[in-house]
Amino acid sequence: TLPDSATRSLVFSEVHAHPAPPSTEEAAVNPLRVASDFEFLELANFGTEAVDLGDLRLIDGVRFSFSTSGIPVLAPSARLVLVRNRGAFAQRYGAAVGIAGEYQGGLNADGETLRVVDGLGRTVASAAYRTESHPAADGLGFSLVLLNEVGNGTNGARVVREEDWRVGREIGGSPGIPD
């Protein structure tokens, strides 16, 4: 059985797997910061119904349970941001970008497949990415964003393939907002 139609509208919309290293100012605030502290990923609801996040979790690449996020549903057209390090993210992006939570583990800068599953282990959304396919997103400060935010999805689950990404327009990415 496939997830319901509302859940199928959840998609990975941005991945910042190989951020730029800390700036001089960022390093002055915390000399122990490293580039991977600034990683983030974004999921979006491109459907017309709210997505119940209650029993969803990330299980591949990074780990996160949405039940701990404090966000029970994701409204239509809304986005949520998950980060590796809340303090580093807030330092670089400010408090205006809402953070749904910190994931466990780290994004693989060489690429991997991320997966969101429901309580029965069914894949709801997945995304394969490789930063080396997009040199500007491989440590130079740019993120990967979807080529087409409405055209991805097969067999009831939102599937983003490596070729479905492009380099974002903004250095540092565009967490929480469209690119």
Salient structural properties:
179 residues, mainly beta, 6-stranded mixed beta sheet, 13 strands, 8% helix
Shape: globular
| Structural class category | mainly beta
Amino- and carboxy-terminal Cα gap:
34 Å
Average predicted local confidence, pLDDT: 88
Low-confidence stretches: 152-156
Please provide the ordered H/E string of secondary-structure elements.
EHEEEEEEHEEEEEE
Strand order across the biggest sheet? 8-7-2-1-11-13
Rg over CA atoms, rounded to whole Å, is 15 Å
Helix percent reads under 10%
Number of helices: 2
Strand content: 25-35%
* Biggest β-sheet strands, sense, barrel: 6 strands, mixed
Describe the structure.
- The strands form three sheets. The chain has a six-stranded mixed β-sheet with strand order 8-7-2-1-11-13, with no helix packed on it. Strands 5-4-9-10-12 form a five-stranded mixed β-sheet, with no helix packed on it. A two-stranded antiparallel sheet has the order 3-6.
- It has helices at residues 24-29, 86-93, and strands at residues 10-16, 40-45, 51-52, 57-60, 64-65, 73-74, 79-83, 101-102, 112-117, 123-129, 142-146, 158-160, 165-171.
- By secondary structure, the chain is mainly beta.
- A hairpin with a 3-residue loop joins strand 4 (57-60) and strand 5 (64-65).
- Residues 152-156 have low confidence and may be disordered.
- 8% of the residues lie in helices and 32% in strands.
- The radius of gyration is 15 Å and the shape is globular.
